Amino acid sequence: MIDNIKVHLKEVAAFSAITAEEVEQFRIGYLGKKGHITKLFAEFRNVPNEQKKEYGQLLNQLKAQALAKVNALQIELRGSQSQSIIEDISRPGQPIPLGARHPISIVRERVIDVFSSIGFGLSSGPEVEDDWHNFTALNLPEHHPARDMQDTFFVQTDPDIMLRTHTSSVQVRHMESNEPPIRILSAGRVFRNEAISARSHCVFHQVEGLYIDKDVSFADLKQTLLYFTKGIFGTSEIRLRPSYFPFTEPSAEVDIYWGLENEVDYRITKGTGWLEIMGCGMVDPNVLTNCGINADVYSGFAFGMGLERMAMLLYQIEDIRMFYDNDVRFLKQFIPMS
Ligand code: PHE
């Protein structure tokens, strides 16, 4: 009887398998309800007393080895299975869902593209500004009534520190530390203390431009605007309406002819066919002087636009709040403009 167990021990030690099926057969053969080991345990009472100890020890050994063998073979087979997956380089990859660009980013890149093709570089500055860069240097001294045009968020109770209300503050910083000729765009987030509605938000994005050199004229401004509206809206039909900004003189509002072909055109142009897209003007000599530029030698123009407004027009988006809701169903719809 003891010899019988020894034969089994040798068999277990020598066993190897290639398929999971073979391992399972082996497991059932040894460890199953009707397997060798169950049978050998049943024989225990027939074993002569003087052999019981050795028989018991060997039988326990056999059981432990059979279990260990099954485990080891199962792990080995699993390992070689996953290895064969890794090795199959012709297997198609897992699909990775493509993300989409945010419509504000798409429009910003497009605007920057158009202006960079005529030599405008990028400049950036802080979102938390001081009074000088956001207002005073821009010809808006303390108590100037036009400060109310841009309701301001102040930081804590310090009236000198605020969230910038426009990216013109970046232009001031750039003029202070650079010599003309200057040709820059400043793009970024701006903040105004306005009630949130479908048409306006307290956080939005602007791109502003500045060009300073000798003999820059209003005609240069107009040609630049034409180049821009052609590039973005595909139209050169623009109109400059006299307007007011404290930092430019003269100032104008730029309208493009949008058309009056359908109901939507009527609604967004209020029945006129014209759409206001940006503000602009010749930089006020006071601003140049404030920023350390000789206003007798240099002149320049500036313009500024809201990117949300652009994106709403270009993609026909009715509610400005959609840009900030982060609803994936909205965000995944936008493809970059060519
Ligand atoms: N800074 C102005 C605004 O935020 C826009 C502007 C820029 C107008 C430059 C004229 C010239 O409303």
Secondary-structure blueprint:
Blueprint: H1 2-14, H2 20-31, H3 36-43, H4 49-87, H5 103-116, E1 121-123, E2 128-130, H6 131-134, E3 154-155, E4 158-163, H7 168-177, E5 182-191, E6 203-213, H8 218-233, E7 238-245, E8 248-257, H9 263-268, E9 274-283, H10 285-290, E10 299-306, H11 307-315, H12 322-325, H13 328-331
Parallel strand pairs: 1-5
Antiparallel strand pairs: 2-4, 3-4, 5-6, 6-10, 7-8, 8-9, 9-10
Bound molecules: phenylalanine (PHE).
The site of phenylalanine has 11 residues, from β9 and β10.
Helical content stands at 40-55%
Number of strands: 10
| CATH class term of the largest domain | Alpha Beta
Structural class: alpha+beta
Uncertain segments: none
**By CATH's scheme, which homologous superfamily of the largest domain applies?**
Bira Bifunctional Protein, Domain 2
Total tally of structural domains: 2
Distinct bound molecules: phenylalanine
Tally of DSSP helical segments? 13
Taking the alpha carbons of the first and last residues, their distance comes to 87 Å
Give the CATH architecture of the largest domain. 2-Layer Sandwich
Give the H and E element order. HHHHHEEHEEHEEHEEHEHEHHH
How much is the average pLDDT?
A: 91
